[in-house]
Amino acid sequence: MLNKAREPEIRDAVSEVWEQLSSDVTRGTLNYWESIRGERIWPLRQDLNPMAIVEFIPNLMILGVERDPLDFVYRLTGTQIDENMAGPLKGLRVSELPHQMGPGEYWELLRSTAERGLPCTRPMPYVGQYRDFKRCELVALPLSTDGCSADQILVTADFMAIIDD
Predict the structure, then answer these.
(1) How far is CA 154 from the centre of its chain?
(2) Can you give the CATH number for the domain in which 29 is found?
(3) Residue 52 half-sphere exposure, CB side, CA atoms within 13 Å?
(4) Residue 39 belongs to what domain range?
(5) Spatial separation of the C-alpha atoms in residues 15 and 83, rounded to whole Å
(6) Contact between residue 113 and residue 141 where contact means Cβ atoms under 8 Å apart
(7) What pTM did the predictor assign?
(8) I need a labelling partner for 4 at 20 to 30 A (CA). Which of 66, 79, 162, 164 fits?
């Protein structure tokens, strides 16, 4: 787990992730996460203010982290998430979904965020029902309910249509 002495590692991870993002939705969520994190290692789940990020809510998911064995449970999913990822997903475990369970890019994004406690992004091809989408840009950001562990992950997904490139 991270401690405050590793603040430079957090800043470096945020910068690295920022450089890889191109979407206003994912960059906006990363900026918001940084603003509510303040001086802490991770923002607290209760710090999220839906009114401050209303334009991103359709593209947001919050997943709970289960540690033994490692798994992720959808706690909240926006309308774009459910529509584009064959939802509704709320209450489901990632390990129960054949197109999401490990090993795979999405599982690795979540695993890396949970284990390292750092923001993460990966290029992700879109796998789903809509042929107009070429890829999906995701950013995964650790959250804490108690300030001691990253036990939730805020994920923002922006679905990039072929014509958007």
Answers:
(1) 4
(2) 3.30.450.20
(3) 11
(4) 4-164
(5) 31
(6) yes
(7) 0.90
(8) 66
